[in-house]
């Protein structure tokens, strides 16, 4: 009996000690981390993707000093690495954490957050005249076309009007083969075959796994889809980023009927698949594209082992590719090739939907302060400070709108402060890229797509969409990289998506797109 | 009989030869990939991206290690990881041993409910969001290294193993201690624990490896970069280098991606690998005893 009591005493003591330990430990946390304190509005917490930039402490100190003097508050950004950004940001929203802004996008969790009421409609705030610097830097078209059912759920972050996928090529090799300038797809193809023939150790172009259907499904152009370069006026629609693309009727606006068809029914897509298969067999594209990541293909290009790389009109291919390339290959030159028929007068279709948005947390301590911050960042001096770092230490101006990088500071501006009119260009930017970048910054160089602000709601067909996405990845990717016979591969894909519920997805898309058409004037 | 034994000692049996060959081949199969990782981490990126792994680093390059060790706060990250591992393992060992002892003693009204309470998390968990809310909003442990330690403090599976071990300690020894007037605490500390060194070593090793490799809770709860443990710091590093190729940042560092991955593997597994030799002599005994008797 006494032994029993002793044991119970021991247990009681153990329990007591454990409780004391937990209570004691609870005091070990960082009490400043809870922004629900009264200071929440004086120190804005921001979620940013990526690693902490080199030299960030000095830049943050300068930003906060100026911000404190101008507006009376400071910022504390939290950087979350890219691999975990999506899930972590979602968790923080779900848990009701009090931060002010975050990067969101359709390819992250924006639709889900809109559905759960976690985001603030910034439309009235942006256009209300209360934040003039911000309003001045956002084009009306950009604001209008980024609204979802009339509401703007974030500040669109873009550094150009339209984004056209294209190629960065080794201009020195092209000149070696007697090609001075590439302006159309047949010449580009000839360049690749010349590379294969005359520099057999160099792969004409390397693809990575995340390029997937960019190779053949227009949006409005696709890398190896010659028809899309001839006529860049069709943009695929899908329920989510990795889902199966559909094309809606070209004359939908006139007929009022969207009539969606699977991507393979669009003229030129199957031809593009056959072209890719031929490139695969001829060694024009790499054979391991299904397993290669973007970092590797970039490394291959900068080491001089490939002759072309994927690029987009964001003005960044020169800065990311040229220094490494010229270090590895003496005399190497870079040129951006956009083989659109008609060149800069082609007027390709665009939805103008931003890839990224800065969203305001509905549970943030002060949405007002967050908007003040966005307005403050729309002033050139402040924008330069956070985007490029401390002048003289991290960068120096070259002319009025260029800069030379002096350090390795790299801020993810696309998550907070990208403003088309305020972005400086790198002094390293090649002439051809500068030309195309200038072209891409003008909204008048593009045609607004009929379905520009159509954002399909996946919820009614969530299960089918998930199954089709899986089948699309499994059977589609080998086709898009030329790894399987086109007819056999396409048959398999069609069967797989059909049994996964293609008809239901297509019907739902038609229903939603037809509804949308009624709102288009 | 003795003659044949003596002859047996002189001749090598075919089985022994085959065993030695098999074990050697298996050993090499385990060691060669490891060696290739080490060699690759010292091979220049330009060669590595073209021809892949090789047995000898040629051309030799320290670029990846330079990238890692000139990166921010590697030393403080090592410090954080060592703190989490040492303190976490000590606390976990204490908590697991304590709870296992109580369950193993089969006390009426206590042991069984406690066992059920302990084992339920093997089947169900509260989920990520409740845990996040508990740690950040109730325990207020954000930016504390204990936020990494506490959620992993008791592993039900290891309690299960340790209970099995405690139950096969001879009851007579514990009973005689009680007859001699020893209290429960004294029995636990002076008889139970000394007899359980093999299982303590095994459990400590499991916890140490878990804490050393832990990055997820740090990702959830630690935003102060000076408190990042090594694994989180390195994960951030590799993530930023890998994503630099596709993301629209103003500059992308020309860091050696392949080489860096291999060097990171070498840097992260090195220290914890040293723990194995210390625990090895207890390892097999502790595992098998705990696993087969109960």
UniProtKB/TrEMBL annotation, chain A:
Pfam families registered for this protein in UniProt: DUF3502
Domain DUF3502: 452-518
Highest taxon above the source species: Bacteria
Gene3D superfamilies: Periplasmic binding protein-like II
Annotated InterPro entries: DUF3502, TAT_signal
Protein name, entry field: Putative aldouronate transport system substrate-binding protein
Organism name: Kribbella caucasensis
TrEMBL record, chain B:
Alphabetical GO biological process terms: transmembrane transport
Alphabetical list of Pfam families matching this protein: BPD_transp_1
Keyword Transmembrane helix: yes
Stored InterPro entries: MetI-like, MetI-like_sf
Top-rank lineage group of the source organism: Bacteria
Residue ranges crossing the lipid bilayer per the database entry: 12-38, 82-104, 116-139, 145-166, 187-209, 258-279
CDD domains cross-referenced by the UniProt entry: TM_PBP2
Heme is among the record's keywords: no
Keywords: Cell membrane, Membrane, Transmembrane, Transmembrane helix, Transport
Residue intervals of the ABC transmembrane type-1 domain: 78-268
Subcellular location: Cell membrane
Topology within the bilayer: Multi-pass membrane protein
Main location: membrane
Gene Ontology cellular component list: plasma membrane
PANTHER family: ABC TRANSPORTER PERMEASE PROTEIN MG189-RELATED-RELATED (PTHR43744), POLYGALACTURONAN_RHAMNOGALACTURONAN TRANSPORT SYSTEM PERMEASE PROTEIN YTCP (PTHR43744:SF9)
Family named by the database record: Belongs to the binding-protein-dependent transport system permease family.
Protein name, as recorded: Putative aldouronate transport system permease protein
